[in-house]
Structure formats: C-alpha cells, structure tokens
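Quick one: structure for this chain?
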Amino acid sequence: MLTKNVVPDFTSLRVAVVGDLIADHYHYTEPTRLSREAPVMVLRHQDEEMRGGGAANVARNLWALGATTQLVGAVGRDSNGRDLLDMLRGEGIDVAGVETVPGWVTPTKTRIMGADPRRTMQQLLRIDREPKAALEPTVRAKIADTLRSLAGEVDAIILSDYTYGVVGEELADAARAAKAAGATVVLDPRRNVDPFHGLTAVTPNLAELADLVGAREGDLLERAQVVAAARQLMDRLTPDYLLVTLGNQGMSLFSKDLAPDGLWVEASGLGEVIDVSGAGDTAVSAFVLGLASGLDVDRAMRLSNAASGVVVMESGTASCSLSKLRSCLPHAPRPTGIEAVAN
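Got it. Here's what it folds into:
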C-alpha cells in the first residue's frame, strides 16, 4: 500500500480532456521610461512564447504528471490555432480529436509581462481575442461523437468549460456513458451545468459555486455558507464528489459518503503566491489522476491541493511536474474531517 506521502505512478492512465482550448500568448518586456506621447510606460520587448490555456492547460498538466493525454475540442483555422496545436504535439499530447474550424477565432489571451532585470515578471495588461460566433452545431456534434467513442477506451475524462462553446449539452449523455463504462468523469464548470448530472465529480471555484447557486461570491465568506451552497449544488447535480477550490483558503470536498460539513484543507505552498493563472486546471488534473489511480478521495484532494500550491509560485500559466509534486507532497497540509470518510 502507498504511504500518505507517496505519489502514485500515473503513466498507465489514459485521460481525455474535452473542452475549450485557449492560446496563451506571453510577451516579456522590460520597462525603460515614460512615453513623451502619453502618460504610459515604454516597454522594451525581450521575448515571447505560446502556452496552452483552458483545456490545453489541463492536458499539459496531465502530461506533466505522466498520464497519456488526448485533447478534444476546437481551434480556428488561424495562426494562433496552428501554433497552439504544434506546441501541444511537440509535447506529446494527442490532438487528433481537435477540430480546426474555418472562420472561427481561436480564443487567445495575450499577456504583456514586465519587470526590471533580475525581478519576477508581473502581468501588466491582458488582451483577449474571442470568437464572434458560436461553434456550428455540426462541429459540436463531431465533438460529441468523439467523446462517445472514448467510452471504454480511457480511464478518465475531464470536461473543461471556459464558455467558448465546446462543453454544451450535446456532451452530457456521452459523458455519463463513459462513466457507466468505468471512466472517472469530471466537469470543471463555468455556467451550463444542469445537463451534466450524475458525473464522478464537479470542481467549481468559489466564484463559480456562488454563480451556480444564484449567489454572489461575497455571500460565501463563512464556512457554513459554503457548505449550504455546496449541498444545494450536490442535490441539483448528484455527482459522487464536489470539490470546491477556495483560492488562498484551500479547498473543500463534499460527498454523500462524508459528514455534512465535508472535508477541508488549507492552501498548500511554501512561498508567496506569484500568479494564480491556470491553478484550477492543475487542481482538477491532479484530483482526477488521484481518483483514477484508485486513491481514497481525501488523498486525491491532498494531491490536488499540493499541485495547485506549486503552480501559483510560478509566473504565467504553468503545469506541475511529477517530480515537483513528489517533492512538495510531504509538506502539504492534510484535510480535516478525515474521520468522516466512509470505509
């Protein structure tokens, strides 16, 4: 049996990520002087790079932790879409299930980063390019067919919703079929959750939880308020588990097999938070791999929290490697309420 501080070997796991691919384009600059044209800083360009965001970042985290990973979704027939797919292929991620859609815009977030020499880059500005039209029904149908074909072929499926149209109700029945065939199926939600009842887990952050139950994030400041909202969403969607990421407050986990107040864990990490971009993608990736490898849910939660604590210490959209997770896990906090886990 694995001890509490040992990370399982994930290399035998096959995981599919179905969702919204985002191109994260980073421009790295150095501030030089104030402009004479306007009261703004002049930045000297140093470098730039493309990273994967959204579902692509989930896939990169799974790959970094050792799982065989394939992506299903859509990009536009544009330079950002091509660069994103080339990068993912180069990292060993299967992108055969990604549809290239003429006339559609690959969702792209351009971040302008700046810092003086030998200082940590900070985000100064973000420019978003977004599709002006929804994905055509024929494209969504192809994506649903691809998901349907994965039932019985993969160990886990993550539905990564960033509201760009891939994760729609067309996927719901196929997702439940994959679960019935033995896969761990998890929804990382934004808004349209009602069709996705009966999955293995749903993993909202605090703002998403509030929105999904018709509240404001400021209404969920107390633990009892979070518990009430979580129970409301559990009753509505009937997942096996509901994992709520709470930012610098850690995580909470709910299930019918747990005490009503669920499990709670403090945020992991040994330093100051630098950038929270993509931390939720890391959290769902590690949580799913933990469940799919047969860990008890409290240990999967601890893995998820530890991996998230790694990426918030790095600049930009980052992934947690297996070596980093193994290094940080012994220092990660343990969930409380563990005595309530069903045997």
